[in-house]
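Recap from last week: sequence in, structure out.
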Amino acid sequence: MAALTLLTSLPNPISQTSFIQSKLTSSKKNLSFSRNGSFYPHLPQTSYFQSNASNNSTQTQISSAEMESTQISDVPLLSCSEAIERSRKFRANYESKQTYLAMYSSIYGGITTDPTAMFIPIDDHIVHRGHGVFDTAAILDGYLYELDQHLDRFLGSAKMAKIPLPFDRETIRRILIQTVSASNCKKGSLRYWLSAGPGDFQLSPAGCVTSSLYAIVIEDQSPPSDHKGVKVITSSVPIKPPQFAVVKSVNYLPNVLSKMEAEENDAYAAIWIDEEGYIAEGPNMNVAFVDKERVLLIPKFDKILRGCTVSRVLMLAEDLVKRGGIRGVQIKNVSVEEGKRADEMMLIGSGVLVRSVVQWDDQVIGDGNEGPVSRALLDMILEDMKSGPAAVRVRVPY
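Predicted structure tokens:
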């Protein structure tokens, strides 16, 4: 209460006190982000961070009177059953575009179909330290698409994040399939996480009891029906350093800010450029191009996450070469200039599958319409999801 009294007695908002102002002033003089995540003294005016700081400065200044009016005077002490019931009512009072059908948790060692019981302990290091990795797989017609490919990447990410496995690979695979089976979902997506686990609020995972595995089945994450060409912009949000970019971790703040930047500019996604000026990736998808020679170009994977969908596209594209749809496929460094003058540009990922890009910043790509190669690759992926080989389609025993 003493702390609250002190805060509410201040004549001006905290952000306007001389102490905070001096800190902000000295910080602005010295700290800015470069594209590779390091600090440098002068950030361009077009930066996402500067523009948003300017736009939101007045919104974040809360007067002492407003602070007093929003304080909660009586906070109830709840029993476990009361907290659960309130949580259930909270969920019932809002609408979500997603429906959670089943969740597995190694914390309680089983599967639940009650969304109220789908929780993660607050002291789990995936929550307060971001020490966790994740992956996904599409569910279509009762089959899991590319489960094993995603699972292999998941285990690779866990190794790079130094998170020990709570079970062996086959046990994890069986748990994932059983979770989908319990959900009875025929069309949606499976997401799963591996965390350093619960135990404390320290930085080091040394105090974690055990690593934890979570999985959830979401009903609405099926292949998109809208394949209309989209606009993208160049991201001003710093790209992740390669050591972290190649790991599919839960540290997605740069990705989220990049996506928000795109939405604020009426675009679908923002494209990252690496420190050498080459095209990298989107916030949660790879990018590809078709050049004037009808060669499919895909940026190298040494500094970005290698998508499972784009890896499958590379295999399927071999048939497109045989049919004469394209002359070849190259994985290479692609400059921004080369990308913008391409005949086609596309986004590739498990969420978008293959999505044609018709405009990048102010540059129209090709003739401004969905390209034939983009459409052909999308059709091939959709067909692969419906009737591909057993290597990419795992039947779920409902």
